[in-house]
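User: Show me sequence and structure for the first protein, then do the same for the second.

Assistant: Starting with the first protein.
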Amino acid sequence: ASAFSDLLSVLQSRGAIEQAKGALMGRVGCDAEQAWNILRRASQQFNVKLRELAVALIEHISGAPAEQPRTPARIAPDQPARTAARLLWSAMAESARPRGRSD
């Protein structure tokens, strides 16, 4: 049963991860692989599960709960994941701004 619940969790989180990647791609003008790397590094840096970070990021951007399949194992980001999402989105806004020449 554990393997099945793990598989269900992966499938359930895939949509949120793809949405988060798409949001990052739009925000900073990167490709899917770069967006995945941004999410992965942020997950490691903030020590939060990537799927929780993805859901928290979508919820932070939209201001509404992320759409998820109606299953008992819904992904519910904790406060550290929500904080990480807010900081990540803010950092991506900074990196997306055009920079003036400093010389």
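Switching to the second protein now.
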Amino acid sequence: MSSSLSVSVEFKGGIELLFSGKTKIDLQLPTKAIGSSGDEQWNLKRLIDLLRDDHLQERPELFIEHNTVRPGILVLVNDTDWEILGGENYQLKNNDNVLFISTLHGG
């Protein structure tokens, strides 16, 4: 079994500006905890926390609200709405593509 999980994260609709203009981040998520014999589980909640803590560069309130993705941001996993897959409890799989699309627009 691989010791990491490959996940691609994409940003569209202006949300990429919060991530230094990056439209895509390829991640290798560890699946083995250091000093542990068990596998680490990665769900969307844990991925969102990682993105907030390690990749978000500015204005976190435009990405996170109440410890989850704020309303107005669509989350798709492999082109499927995350709500259909169980929301933030969805267990990530190798080679998943997670897309965040902002539908919020200023005026």
